[in-house]
Amino acid sequence: MTEQKHYINAETTVKSWLLTVDHKRIAILYLLSVVGFFILGGTAAILFRLDLMTPQGDLLAHETYNKMFTMHGVMMVFFFLVPVVPAVLGNFLVPIMIGARDVAFPRLNLASWYIFITGGLFALAALVLGGVDTGWTFYTPYSSTYANSNVILTGLGVFVAGFASILTGVNFIVTIHKMRAPGMTWFRLPLFIWAQYATSIIMVLGTPVIAITLLLLVLERAFHIGIFDPALGGDPVLFQHLFWFYSHPAVYIMILPGFGIISELIACFSRKNVFGYSFVAFSSLAIAIIGFFVWGHHMFITSQSIYAGLIFSILSFIIAVPTAVKIFNWTATLYKGSVEFRTPMIYALGFIGLFLVGGLTGLFLSSMGLDVHLHDTYFVVAHFHYVMVGGMVMAFLGGLHFWWPKMFGRTYNQGCAVFTAIVIFIGFNLTFFPQFIVGYLGMPRRYHVYPEEFQIFHILSTGGASVLGFGYLLMFCYLPYSLIKGKKATANPWPATGLEWEQTTSPPPTLNFIHDPVVTEEAYAYAKKNEEFYRQAIPAESKDV
Amino acid sequence: MNDQIDHHISPIRTYIIVFMALMVFTGITVWVAFQDLGYLNTFVAVTIAVIKATIVAWYFMHLKSSAKITRVVALAGVIWLIVMFALTMSDYAARSWIPFPDPW
Predict the structure, then answer these.
(1) Phi-psi domain of A130 (left: phi exceeds 0; alpha: psi -120 through 50; beta: other)
(2) Mean pLDDT in chain A?
């Protein structure tokens, strides 16, 4: 029997991959690249977590420790978390989910990958040439005046990679506006698409600001143009304003696509329509917009005025509302659903719990008084890891496991995958929960020499990180193994609703669909699907009767 | 013809006038930079920059003859710039509202 032609085996040369304009292949290129950066960032984390096991900080030198946590932050934020869902799952799924043959600008899509890799090479060069020690936030005046490490090279790397982000954002906005299949109205769009759309808005409106901010930093460092240095007439806090104008919304670039994934998973594995579809859809847009108004909560402990702090504090509380809308709606979707505990669903449920902790501790930090105590402690570290790793990475892994059969046409071992998901959940909590406590007790972040009474929390944390690392390693075993030995996936193995499942093969052909799809029903018509399922099942049984 | 695509071609005269206007504003920018207008310094500099950027976007970048959705996208950029300035200024403008104690 001849093997079915699809996007993976359509052409097999290296050139056909490197010059492809197929959004699915570009997604795979992005997947390989971001996994590479994830491994680098993760290795740095393992090294400094081992260092933190003893209060003397005797494994790494002071400078090396600073460079390790900076590398971890830069790699994970700019080269993993920001691109991972939009550029991998988004690139693969956005056109298929809306019934298009490709994105609106396929060549720009490929260009974005090359730009991303160029930015990544700059950052890697900075690493090879001795690293950078400013922290991923590049705060002035340390970064502009005092640091002796490769700030310019790293800054340029992030600057260049930003353009990849902008191109992806522009591509998605135009694709979603212009290339929806007949019948795919705005309110029939899967919630993953709404989330990608909201994310794209932030990417397009926010990324230029970080790009120009880092360029200003480079200009001040290289040519002594006074922007942030008070001696030259600048203001170091201005850097923080400009940096967080992008970098706080960037948190939503990272988490919003995760929200989109969770909506898909919860609906599929509860066999129910998403409760309050339009509220969930609009809450993504609300988060994208309000997310731009809250950045000052990173700066309560600077010279920022009390008045501005008050405004930013109130606005930060307000953004919890659309986020809570999502959590409540997912919970309501689960209510009376026929919940199946398959691997993606384990990640989705893990996400809800962990993100809830991450989100609520964010409210602690946006209270001005409490932030005086908690600012720059491990409490903050635990908070944002609960959002970024407990939220975003769990959502990404859920999504990856959900769409893996679609992307590669193979299924993985469910038992292994469920076990790994549980190991990751336990490892994550063991790593980061003790950090809430030690942070509250006063352990500052970014210090590797600390009082002995904090050691127990660091030992727990390092132990947890080992369990977490083991979980990730397991995944690096069974997922690649499934590509070789996994059973062939059917077109709709879960079975789920949506064009990617119902209208195309696994993996899809190069042009996504054999026939142009026409959409005739709402998203998540699981009630109808369940009915059909029973209608097919019942006559067979009634014959026996 | 696809009505979404801008096929409008402006006369060369328009470009020359726009170029001249930009040069005049650049001259004003340089001149203003040497005047001390007190707290108006930033305001005047930003106003001139906004006028120049608007001229560039409207004529050179063809917003004048673009579809409404394109103008909405450009407008979103301007609104976000205003948000950035306004909230940043909520800090700078209000720093002196609560006096700091005298240094020892």
Answers:
(1) left
(2) 93
Q: Tens of pLDDT along A308-321?
A: 999 999 999 999 99
List, in sequence order, every residue forming a beta bridge with A410; answer none if it has no partner.
Answer: A488
Q: How far away is chain B from the Cα of A318, in angstroms, using its nearest Cα?
A: 16
Domains and their CATH numbers in chain A: 20-544 (1.20.210.10)
Specify the DSSP element, H or E, that contains B98. none
Task: Give residue ranges of A with CB < 8 Å to any B CB.
Answer: 177, 201, 205, 209, 237-238, 241-242, 245, 292-293, 295-296, 299, 303-308, 311-312
Cross-chain Cβ contact B91/A237 below 8 Å: yes
Q: Which residues neighbour A314 within 8 Å (Cβ) at sequence distance 6 or greater?
A: none
Nearest to B90 among A201, A237, A311 (CB): A311
Chain B, nearest residue to A241 by Cα: B88
CB-based contact A315:A290 (threshold 8 Å): yes
Given this model, what pLDDT does residue A543 score?
42
Question: Under an 8 A CB cutoff, do A308 and B90 touch?
Answer: yes
Under the banding of pLDDT at 50, 70 and 90, the label for residue B7 is low
- Taking the C-alpha atoms of residue A346 and residue A340, their distance in angstroms, rounded to an integer, is 9
Say if residue A538's pLDDT is above 60.
no
The predicted pLDDT at position A389 comes to 95
Statement: residue B1 has pLDDT above 60: no
Question: What's the whole-number mean pLDDT along residues A360-386?
Answer: 96
What mean pLDDT do residues B11-27 have?
93
- Check: CB of residue A386 under 8 Å from CB of residue A72: no
Min CA distance, A85 vs chain B (Å)?
Answer: 24
Average pLDDT over residues A311-335: 96
CB contact under 8 Å between A296 and B94, yes or no, is: no
pLDDT at A536 over 90: no
Whether A326 and A261 have beta carbons less than 8 Å apart is answered as no
Query: pLDDT at position A3, please?
Result: 72
Return the higher-pLDDT residue of A154 and B42: A154
CB-closest option in B76, B88, B94 to A241: B88
Instruction: Judge whether A109 and A103 are in contact, CB under 8 Å.
Output: yes
pLDDT at A209 over 80: yes
* Mean pLDDT computed over B55-66: 91
User: DSSP secondary-structure letter at B101?
Assistant: P
Q: Is B2 on the interface with A (CB under 8 A)?
A: no
B98 compared with A124, residue with greater pLDDT: A124
**Residues of B whose CB is below 8 A from A296:** 87, 90-91
Handedness of CA A336, A340, A344, A350 (dihedral sign): positive
The DSSP code for A85 is I
| Whether B90 contacts chain A with CB within 8 A | yes
| Residue A444 backbone phi and psi in degrees, to 5 | -75, 150
Helix or strand or coil: residue A242?
helix
The token pair that represents B62 in the structure block: 């063809």
DSSP for A376-434 reads TBHHHHHHHHHHIIIIIIHHHHHHHHHHHHHHHSB---HHHHHHHHHHHHHHHHHHHHH
